[in-house]
């Protein structure tokens, strides 16, 4: 456990609780509070004068009628998380932050919070206590005007100008950060009915409820805006290019389901559904206006479609259809003619400076087109189902090599595993565990030498099924790594449930570390978190010595990246392993690069 926050005994905590009661009696506009931070933050105690400051009663907040995520102004959530994490993991025990909170009358309050964090010795629970005051009156005229020009006063969400600004930011950042963004354009069905029959007041309240529910569907990096009557836009940022569609599908489904539940407003039970159009930033447009227009077009098509609530913008799909077909045929030929090949990228233990394993990465050696990246053909293989025979080939080939390594005397003793990538379609197959077992048995390898890399997208839809499959294979000794961590919906709650052994920090974090301070803090947080959960951690995309130094200082175990070596052909990888027996690793860096 490496948290620097202070542990307190039970009686010290009682004293703190008494302080809160005491402050309650002082009153005024200083509100004291205590929040438990484990997994989902929860208000445990808050002084009753909160009603005078924000309009919510003490009971409402303690009963969790409003969660912190809906109270805090959406764009401030990320900043708050970061400040709180800093307080938890750095030596900054006392902290101050300012944020905007939505009061019950839907006005926005500028609040200053002073807090400290501590850990309860017995239960190991994390808490945050402190007090807050309302600084709204002190805010300058300019800040308020800025606020009004970018925000929708009804829901407190960003407005059209705001979302355009955010889209523009994403357009500029996706190239450097290797990430992807998607725009979801939502329109409520039958909203006009509500307005016409029950009046604007009820209509407005429905919109507020809708905005609350929508907020619960997205994560801090994402942006939610209301850009017109019943039109909402969600910008999903920092997605993984590989799993973009899966993520959009998951969020769209979540949005659809949550809005489908009836809204109870006064004595009315209101039903609404939504249609969603999607445009991918950079692919379906290169300006905010174009993207909004195309997502809107897709939404209109979805609205007309009786059977689907979701529609991706069409032009890309049509364009891609022809190439898809071509690639599909080519893949069939490739399987028959053995054009696939596995490359191996070493994984290096930072402390001992030894190669401990390798990730197997597929390459397609096309007779005319040369080497084709998996990023190009894996998505098509997934759509067409061809991923199944490809995956079978990958697993067999990797197992063959593991078998060979077991007998090879030139392999350094530190080297103990090969990891392979499992596509989400493959993982979801009912026969997945049986297939893996069969291939392992046929190859006769020690299953402990095999690691399977899965992404959150493969697990999240049916967590129970995923856990069951993992446990079956773990029983044999196979290890599991969570790939691309940090790009998905990485929540502590489900991470704790998953029988994962290793977390792989996504390369976008490592690569942006020197330009983006948030990424630095998040990387640090991920490392701390995995240590707390007793998970090993491996950082991907380590290209520079600065990356390595940062990771080493924070206690990251292992890395993989161009800094030491690119993925190598089998032959080159074997040669590298042999060399590591003769020379220290740092002298081999240039050999490995070749
Ligand atoms: P991944 O699982 O995240 O694999 C890591 C990718 O990062 C690899 O790309 C690797 O070459 C690249 N990489 C490693 N170190 C660095 C670095 O320092 N800088 C940069 N810029 N990149 C680095 P690759 O080989 O192109 O593979 C792309 C993706 O294709 C993989 O991402 C994985 O999701 C998928 N893939 C590869 N092989 C297989 C496979 O056999 N089966 C399945 N289902 N998917 C595969
Ligand atoms: Ca991987
Ligand atoms: Ca990865």
Could you characterize what this model shows?
- The relative contact order is 0.07.
- Helix 5 (74-89) crosses helix 21 (517-532), helix 14 packs parallel to helix 16 and helix 16 (432-443) runs parallel beside helix 18.
- Strand 5 (108-120) and strand 6 form a beta hairpin.
- It contains 24 helices and 22 strands.
- By secondary structure, it is α/β, with parallel strands linked by helices.
- It starts with 5 loop residues before the first strand and ends with a helix.
- The longest helix is centred in the middle third of the chain and has 23 residues, at 314-336.
- Bound molecules: ligand C2E and calcium ion (2 copies).
- One calcium ion binds next to loops.
Question: Main traits of this protein?
Answer:
alpha/beta, binds ligand C2E, six-stranded mixed β-sheet, eight-stranded mixed beta barrel
Helix content: 40-55%
Runs in which pLDDT lies below 50 for 5 or more consecutive residues are: none
Beta-strand content estimate: 15-25%
Mean pLDDT: 86
Tell me the structural class: alpha/beta
Tally of DSSP helical segments? 24
Distance between the termini: 40 Å
Q: Give the neighbour order of strands across the main sheet.
A: 14-15-17-18-19-20-21-22
Biggest beta sheet summary: 8 strands, mixed, barrel
CA-atom Rg in angstroms: 26 Å
